[in-house]
Design a protein that fits this description.
Helix content is 26%, strand content 24%. It has 299 residues and is of the alpha+beta class. Bound molecules: flavin-adenine dinucleotide.
Amino acid sequence: MEGMGDLLRRMPGSRENVPLSGYTSFGTGGPARYMAAPGSLQEVKEVFLACRQYGQPYLILGRGTNLLVSDRGFQGVVILTCRLNSVFVRENRILCECGSPITSLMKTAVSHCLGGIEFLAGIPGSAGGALVSNAGLKDHWISRAVREIYVLYPESLEVKNIKGDEAAFGYRKSGLADYFVYRTVLNLSPADPGEMRRKMRDNMRRRISSQPIGSMSAGSVFKNPPGAFAGQLIEKAGLKGYSLGGARVSPKHANFIVNTGGATSRDIYLLMSKIREKIRKDYNITLEPEIKLAGDFGE
Ligand SMILES: Cc1cc2nc3c(=O)[nH]c(=O)nc-3n(C[C@H](O)[C@H](O)[C@H](O)COP(=O)(O)OP(=O)(O)OC[C@H]3O[C@@H](n4cnc5c(N)ncnc54)[C@H](O)[C@@H]3O)c2cc1C
């Protein structure tokens, strides 16, 4: 009988025992037992079918910029979305597949004079990752531009079209986490490309002055608790610049943890635990991680 490995080996871009440190912006993480890189909806279905058939857990991986993967890796199938990267324009709408980098959406929007998502400039993820976490800034989120989302339900392989206002979007969350987000349609408005570029440059300038851009990080580690900013709490607790192994609380922005070179995922995980413990003790606030954890972090 054909095994899981045989089946996945036939998938384009598939491999075994792939170190995930090359696929995460933290630059950490152990190996994926299997990795598949489907290039069409049909291939996505085949991968999920194989996972179901062989009882393999799966992890959907966009650009890995909001993810901490265990040093033990992921004992299942990592489904890379990078080959699902088509972007089309229809009137005032951009249709994009989930693996499209946000930078591609921005370029397409500017070249078609379509404004409304300039605030995403500098967010290094994919469209799918951005939708699942409702990426954005303090007061601008991608959900505001979403008209509809085509999702695949991994259990039944059914494809559904969810309207933007039915996706349960909230602060850095959505109701999409149990689905494979396949494609989305963004509603934009006619805009002056020069003005759009100016807004994007301003956003980038603000980021460069306040965030450790260029370091190995995954953006903000914790969500802001109601009425407060996680970064300010961490700084007031005296942890800005604090190091644990190769992981460090960024001296530039206390809600960023950076890999200073030799960090393991465990270093980052333990530093997160240390921060949570201190903030709980000092302020009686439990910080909720904004980044997603994958794999086993137990002792
Ligand atoms: C320097 C830096 C700055 C950042 N600034 C911001 C910011 O200002 N605002 C902000 O919101 N974020 C920010 N981020 C975080 C990150 O870039 C965004 O959350 C981004 O949208 C994540 O996309 P991704 O493709 O990298 O997702 P991944 O890290 O690959 O995945 C994140 C989660 O989404 C799931 N997922 C990914 N694709 C799919 C899919 N197609 N279907 C279903 N689930 C999927 C994954 O399984 C995982 O649970 C920053 C990160 C960095 C490194």
